[in-house]
Amino acid sequence: MSASRQIVCPHCAGINRVPADRPAEAALCGRCRAPLFSGKPVDADSAMLDKQVRQGDVPVLVDVWAPWCGPCRMMAPAFEAAAAELEPAVRLVKLNTDAEPEMAARLGIRGIPTMILFSGGREVARVSGAMAASQIAAWARGRLEAVA
Length: 148
Ligand SMILES: [Zn+2]
Description:
By secondary structure, the protein is of the alpha/beta class. The protein has helices spanning 46-55, 70-86, 101-106, 133-147, and strands at residues 4-8, 15-19, 42-43, 60-65, 91-96, 114-119, 122-128. The strands form two sheets. It has a five-stranded mixed beta sheet, sandwiched between helices. The protein has a two-stranded antiparallel ribbon with strand order 1-2. The protein binds zinc ion (ZN). Residues 9, 11-12, 14, 29, 31-32, 34 line the site of zinc ion (ZN).
């Protein structure tokens, strides 16, 4: 049992070790001093997403979206509300397919919105289509329990 969790800063991608008995939602990045969790999804590029998934101990829920996608824009407030509910147990990230087409291809995205849940550095679940905040939170928790 490790006494600390490795948390990747969503702003500078710095790696922080946060003691397990310290509330992660109150922790600041040791490098840039930004909060490690803000209760809001963070916009990630490919490098940031890779780092969050591979080097962080926190499961990552990615909302794959694009600005031209109506259902994606409709789901944005729900995803934001889900972040407030799920952090700091889960890191919520948004990936814009227009800005990161190579990453979208690597993830095998066929339609958007699609949400992908990563835990332990690998994909554990994905779902397509818009969802309400409570559905997003329940889905993520359920899938994480299934792999725990
Ligand atoms: Zn930082």
